[in-house]
Structures are given as C-alpha cells and as structure tokens.
Amino acid sequence: MWVLPLLVIGSILTFALLAVGLPTSPEQRAVPLFFNPDPRGIRHHAAEALDALRAGEDPRAAEQLARLGGAALPHVLPQLEHLANDAQRRVARALAPVARRTGVARDEAVLDDPDASVRFWKRFWQDRSLDFQPTVVSRLVRRVAARSEALGSADLLQLDTYALPELVRQLGSIRHQNDVTRARRLLHIAGDITERRWLVADDASPEEARRAVTECRRWWDEHRALYTDVIGMSRLTATLTQTRYGRWALRTLREVTGLDTSFVGQDLARRARVTGPLLLCCMIGAWLLAAAGAALLAAAPRRGGLLLRGASALAIAALIPAAVLWPPRLGLEGAMAAACALSVLLGALPALHLGRGALAELLVAGGDKGSPPPLGTLLRRALAAAPVWAPLAFAEAITLVFALEWSSGLGGVGPRTVLALQRGDVAWLMAVCLTLGVATAVVQIVADAALARSLRRPAKAPEVSPC
Amino acid sequence: MLNALLATLGATVLAVVCALLVGVALGGLALGFLEGSRLSARLVELRGALPTLIAAPLLDGWLHLPAPVTLGLLVGAHQGFAVSRWVRGLRLLEPTPGPDHARALRPRRWLGLSPPVRTTIALCAVHVVTLEALLSALQLPPFTVSLGSLMAQALAPAARFGAVVALCCLFVLLDQGAERWARSWVGPPAEASPP
User: Fold this and answer.
1) Cβ B94–A361 below 8 Å, yes or no?
2) Rounded CA separation A115/B165 (Å)
C-alpha cells in the first residue's frame, strides 16, 4: 500500500533535485516547477494579442493571433464590433493568414483590402459562430474517426486549431488495426492544422501508429495551453498540469498505462540487458568475498585481520584505477570479469566489518578473549548479516558498474546516464533514478524478509564457558 | 599534490563526521521506534535511487558549494544512511545469552558500534576518492584538483604510483586511527559476572 504514495513523493523529490541541479533552457525555466498559481489559456492569450493590436501596430501580437488560429476566433471576433476602425483593420489583417490556411474565404482578394477584410470577418462570425461549439466539433471528429476522412475533414480544417483538443482526445489508445485507421485519419487532419508531419502509413502496424500518436500527444503537452480554455475545474487542474512536473507526470502516466510508446522505457530495457548481468556479477562476487573474509578471520583472528586490511587497501588502491578508469576495450564477458574483480572492493570492506564485528561481539558474549568461536558459528553469523549489507552494496555496485560500462564502451545504462547528466535530460534521469529506487526497495524487502526469517529461527546461543 | 591531498582529506573528514552524526542518530531512531526503522528503510531506498555519481553533479548545480564540501556532504549522507542500517541490523542480530551477559555487554555496547564506525571511516575515504576519480574521468561537476582527479588524469607512471601509494596509506591510517579511537573511547572490557 505504501509503494504508490512513496513513489509519488520520491518522484517529486527527485524531480525537484534534477530541476535545480541540471542545466535548463530559458523556455523550460519559464514554466513553473510544481504549481502554477496563474495558469493561462486561449482566452488569456487571445485577449493579450487583442489588447496589443488595439493599442497600435504590433507585429508580434499579429503573429501570435495567426498562430492561435481558429481557437482564438470565439474570443476575438465577438469583440471586433467594439474596437475602433483602425484596430478592427489591424485585427482583420492579423487574422488573414488564418483565413488563407483554412480556406474559408472564397475570394482571397478580400483579405488584402482592410475594410473588406473587416466586413468578411464580421459576416463569417454571423454565419459560422454556431460551428464553434464543443458539441459540434466532437460530432465532426467522431464522424471522421468512425467513417471517412472525406465526410468531415474539410469542416474540421475550417475550424482550424479550435478542433485540436477534440482531435487529440479522440486519438485514444492504439491496439488494433481499426485504431490505426482512426489514428491515420485524425493525425492527417491535426498535421494539416498544425503544419506538422505525424504520418501513419496505409500498412502501418499498431506499434508504428502508436509512435506517431505519441509524438502528437507530446507536442500537445507543450502547446495545450495555447489552444484550450482554462475555466472552472480545468483551471484548477491546470495549476498542476501547466508545470514541468505535471507535464512529465502526464507523459509518464500515459507511457506506464500503455497509451503511449515509451521511448525512454524501451531504451532503458535494452540497456538494462547489459547492466543487469554486470550488477549481478558484482553483487554475487561481493557476497562470496564477504563470507570468505569472515571465515578467514574466524580461522586466524589476528593474522586474518591484518591480511584482510592489507587486501582491502590493495583492492582500493589498485582496482579503482586498474578496473574502472583504464580498462582495455572489453566485450561483455570481459566487463563481467571486471565486475567480479570490482566486487573485491565491495566485498573486502564488508567482510572486514562482518568478521571483526561478529568476532568482537561473540568474544565478549563468551567472556573469553582467548578462544574464538567455532568457524561454523562465525560463518552462520556472517551469512545472517548479509541481508543487512545487500541493499547498501547495491548502491555502490551501481556507481562502479556505470563507470565500468562507460570506460569499456559497453552500451549499458551508465554511458547514457552520463550523457543525460551532461545534457540535462530530465526524462532519462527520472526513469533511471525511479528504476534504481524501486530496485533498491525490492532488494531491501527481500533482505528484510531474509533477516526476519533468520531472527525467527531459534537462536543458537554461542558456546559460553560457564566460568 | 599537497593541495590535492588536502582537498581529499577535507572531504573525507567532513564525510566521516556527517556519516557518523546522521548514521548514529538514524540508527538510534531505527532501533528505538518503528517509525525510525521505516525512515531508515526509506532513506536506504533514496540512497539507491540517487547513486553518488548522479547526485554529485546535481548537488553541485543546486548548492554551488566548494567541491570538497559538496563531496563530503554527499558521501557523508550516503554512508550515514548505510550506518543506520548497519546499526539496526547488527543490533537485531546480536546474540542474547541471558541477563548476566547482557549486563556484561552493556558497557561494551558502544564497541558494538565501533565496527560500523570504523568501516564507515574507511568507506568514506574510499568513496570520496572513487567519486573524485570518476567525476574527473567522466568530466562531470564538481570539478576539483584532488587525489582522485590526479589518479584519473595522471599519465606519468610515477604520478599514478604516488597517488596509489598515498591512497593506500590514507586508508590504512584512517582504519588504524579509527580502531584506536574506538577502543580508547569504550575503555577496557567489562567482566562477565558468573552465572
């Protein structure tokens, strides 16, 4: 039960750390991180452009109005009557690219004449204002999706960006060939409106179609605020979704539920096939060495300690440069051998710990410093302590394996993570951090279960001398 | 070389102090309270989710502290979370032979802490140098001249050998010093009373 809330909290903390610690572009910084107190929608953007054009010539506002397209018309055209004549001409001129793009003007020459253009837009709104209704758009999109592109695509193109929210909404999930056909029709219209290419071939598989739909939805995540209104409940949700974390969370949720293709997830799974065996080699090697170290200490408490300390010093001093920083170009087998060698570093020190700790405590419990406990007792104790150590060694092993992959040129998770750190790729780093967190949690749960089992077993008291 | 050694030593000392403060406090909580135990488990998961290789550049970009301080704090926190699990785990595994022996063990309880403490000190030194070397080799921040970065960049065999010997000595000295400190702190072992 605690896994999901913890995952959410963990993702928020990790995202915050990544957002403040990684280099970000000014565009990214302009979007709030977790909470947007003043979410903006088409109503705001259209009013902003209208105000600027009311005040005078403003090429940027005109460009913005043309970009907002059909979605801005229900907010701009009803206001046209209330503007001064000059302002009306400026607005009509700014809207001319929309009329050309959608083909609503039978005679495009009227768009070049300021007064005729104003008359055209006023008439257009009188005739067509009823088409700019969510129910009308929804019915049109449903008809195109279910039957044929020819039946309503021209009407949808004339509604321009006003139709985008419904077009994206009805893309739905792509699982069967029928879904591919629907996606092809809707993406074709959405692509024409936005002047982007989200093409689905006639013989495309559901996977290929899902990829195109994913790209469209990702574009929509970034531009949704330009074409949708935020009022009522949608304003409330926009305070969370119009944030960097909100966008990442929505995208991840779609990927996790299988609605979208997870490019990061596919890459991570492919690279984990290299990293996984290396991690496993490291962990098994370290555990074997820890047990061997404890046995060595039990067999020769004083010399064993000295030997182990020397071995640890050598491991630390020699293995970092030898195996991590300057290895030859290795294949996967070579890297696995190097991972086993690296496990000396992970195994020697815990062995030192386990052996010494177990020995000291058992000697004190026995009250006799001169007679070490039997080898079997120490080994059992060392093995019982392994679950304590496993989740901790996992984190160390990850760092070493990442470095090993990078230096040996293997296509594992490590080199891609280093690249992500250098480029500020939050999506990849979030995927890696969350995967590692979940993996550590699993190792810890298994280790705790093993620990609880060893504690439930009737404890065998160490051999204690009665005197 | 001296500057590099000082930077590494500074980071290591900071890491050890941080690790012991965090680790013993959290370990005590984990032993005493169920919530403490849960907190310790969550922190170990956080430790796994953010390996030092990923966390170091992020912390540097966030705090903009001098490199040895960043590395010291990061490694200290990482090892501190580890100490808390050690303390909890080893206490749970402790044999309980009877009330008399428990009484005899009581003054030696801190000695029970000394193996994790000693290992932490040695691990902190290793971790700091490894991290310095890796970050330098991978060209990730924080950028600093340190023992680890010298090891990563040294091309001359003599320089490489010098760095390796210095690291070896650092580890042995730290381990030896920590052991003596732990023993002097605890005092002579208490005699177990006869049954």
Assistant:
1) yes
2) 87
pLDDT-based confidence at A449, cuts 50/70/90? confident
How many residues does this entry show for chain B? 195
* Cα-Cα-Cα-Cα dihedral sign, residues A155, A161, A165, A167: positive
Q: Assign residue B98 a region (left: φ > 0; alpha: ψ between -120 and 50; beta: otherwise).
A: left
| Whether residue A201 is found in the same domain as residue A348 | no
Give SS3 for A170. Answer: coil
A20, part of any domain: no
Q: How far is A96 from A73, CA to CA, in rounded Å?
A: 12
A225 close to A242: Cβ distance less than 8 angstroms? yes
| Calpha distance B155→B158 (Å, rounded) | 9
Reduced to 3 states (helix: H, G, I; strand: E, B; else coil), residue A284 is helix
Using pLDDT thresholds of 50, 70 and 90, give the confidence band for residue A467. very low
Average pLDDT over residues A79-93: 89
Cβ neighbours of A437 in B, within 8 Å: 45-46, 48-49
- Are B48 and A402 within 8 A, CB to CB? no
Q: Among A236, A263, A290, which residue terminates a domain?
A: A263
Residues A156 and A109 in one domain: no
A353 and A309 in contact (C-beta within 8 Å)?
Answer: no
Closest-CA distance of chain B to residue A300, Å: 18
Which tokens go with A103?
A: 């083909």
Number of domains composing chain A = 3
ipTM higher than threshold 0.90: no
The angle that helices A206-227 and A59-68 make with each other, rounded to 10 degrees, is 140
Question: Inter-axis angle of helices A375-408 and B67-93, to 10 degrees?
Answer: 150
The range of the structural domain enclosing residue A364 comes to: 265-456
> What number is the average pLDDT over the span B84-100?
59
Q: Which of A97, A113, A129 is the last residue of a domain?
A: A129
Measuring CA to CA, which residue among A273, A221, A315, A272 is closest to residue A428?
A272
Answer yes or no: is pLDDT of A319 > 80.
Answer: no
**pLDDT of A251-270, one tens digit each?**
999 999 989 999 999 999 99
**Taking CB atoms and an 8 Å limit, are B47 and A440 in contact across chains?**
yes
The verdict on residue A51 lying in a domain is yes
Which of B37, B43, B45 would you mutate first to test chain A, the one with the most A CBs within 10 A? B45
Asked if residue A118 and residue A148 are part of one domain, the reply reads no
Residue entry with tokens 């000693």? B118
Kindly report, residue by residue over B118-137, the tens digit of the pLDDT: 667 777 877 888 788 788 87
Q: Kindly tell me if the per-residue pLDDT of B175 is higher than 70.
A: no
Looking at domain B2-91+103-186, its CATH class is mainly alpha
pLDDT number for residue A214: 94
The pLDDT of residue A466: 34
Question: Which tens digit of pLDDT belongs to each residue from A383-400?
Answer: 666 677 778 888 888 887
Question: Do the Cβ atoms of A78 and A274 come closer than 8 Å?
Answer: no
pTM, rounded to two decimals: 0.80
